[in-house]
């Protein structure tokens, strides 16, 4: 059986690989425990690829990085049929999507057809190729990156695909102390002084066992109602605060409530508890809602951001009393 201690050991290993970025490591653990896909947004050079690769190695999962480019074709991702010269029959050659953990690098550079193929994989854990539906691994997980600084040659992700990501994480540059530690660790690795002897006790099967444990977390009716109240509040902001009447064009869908439930359960499980509290819900809310609400032009002009709106929701929606 999987335990929190094994996942804590995995996190400690990730901390030896990645300096700082505490939120990234915590939320990657949540994604691993729920099977929810993650969109990572931040400038280049923040060790996103290194973190995802270390996560895959930590659970002995098959890892594949896919560099998305404007000339990428769906077959380059999901695979295609080729003619077998010996038998004369068509043979399917799986693409890189057939791995446990996928790093979709610069996903917004992919053309719409590729994004559509990826959407089926993310939503159904299967792909359709050569007229057949083919299942992906049970532990299939997509961690996608996009660069917010460079927009030339990009294709904005459609709302339907954004909604398939359970979490949207914003990464920022490390502070001076963390960056100094990065330099020191790099020198140690260069001279062979920093040897990683970590031996993971986790396997993909144990990850699936842990996901089952997370799904059995106790969530009281008041906490369930709190989750739904926070999400549905995005569709009726004007009722809670008349000054926010025109702030959002589109609120979050019921899929946001499901994502919030799963993420909160995983957060509580990692904390060693078998029940979810309002604090767990508030902790996960920004990453669950950030990409699911669409601000109006007037909101941007007035200085609103998605995170400011989410913080305001936390202030406006009553916190339930729990035992």
From TrEMBL:
Molecular functions per Gene Ontology: ATP binding; ATP hydrolysis activity
Occurrences of domain AAA+ ATPase (ranges): 34-175
Family designation: Belongs to the MoxR family.
Keyword Transmembrane helix: no
PANTHER family, per database record: MAGNESIUM-CHELATASE SUBUNIT CHLD, MOXR FAMILY PROTEIN
SMART domains: AAA
Keywords for the protein's UniProt record, in alphabetical order: ATP-binding, Nucleotide-binding
Stated name of the protein: MoxR family ATPase
Gene3D superfamilies: Magnesium chelatase subunit I, C-Terminal domain (1.10.8.80), P-loop containing nucleotide triphosphate hydrolases (3.40.50.300)
Domain of life: Bacteria
């Amino acid at each position: 059986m999987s335990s929190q201690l094994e996942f804590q050991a995995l996190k400690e290993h990730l901390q030896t690989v990645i300096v700082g970025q505490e939120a990234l490591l915590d939320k990657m653990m949540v994604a691993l425990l729920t099977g929810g896909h993650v969109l990572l947004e931040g400038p280049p050079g923040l060790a996103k690829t290194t973190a995802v690769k270390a996560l895959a190695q930590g659970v002995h999962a098959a890892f594949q990085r896919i560099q998305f480019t404007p000339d990428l074709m769906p077959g380059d991702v999901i695979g295609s049929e080729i003619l077998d010269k010996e038998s004369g029959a068509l043979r399917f050659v799986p693409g890189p999507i057939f791995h446990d953990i996928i790093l979709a690098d610069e996903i917004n550079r992919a053309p719409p057809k590729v994004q559509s193929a990826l959407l089926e994989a993310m939503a159904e854990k299967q792909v359709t190729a050569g007229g057949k539906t083919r299942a992906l691994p049970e532990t299939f997980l997509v961690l996608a990156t996009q660069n917010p600084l460079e927009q030339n040659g990009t294709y904005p992700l459609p709302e339907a695909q954004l909604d398939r990501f359970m979490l949207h994480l914003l990464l920022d540059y490390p502070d001076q102390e963390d960056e100094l530690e990065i330099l020191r660790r790099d020198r140690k690795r260069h001279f062979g002084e920093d040897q990683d002897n970590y031996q993971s006790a986790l396997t993909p099967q144990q990850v699936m066992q842990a996901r089952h444990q997370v799904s059995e977390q106790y969530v009281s009716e008041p906490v369930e109602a709190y989750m739904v109240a926070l999400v549905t509040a995005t569709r009726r902001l004007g009722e809670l605060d008349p000054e926010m009447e025109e702030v959002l064009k589109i609120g979050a869908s019921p899929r946001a409530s499901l994502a919030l439930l799963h993420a909160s359960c995983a957060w509580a499980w990692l904390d060693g508890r078998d029940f979810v509290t309002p604090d767990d819900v508030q902790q996960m809310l920004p990453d669950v809602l950030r990409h699911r609400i669409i601000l109006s032009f007037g909101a941007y002009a007035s200085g609103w951001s998605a995170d400011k709106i989410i913080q305001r929701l936390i202030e406006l929606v009553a916190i339930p009393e729990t035992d």
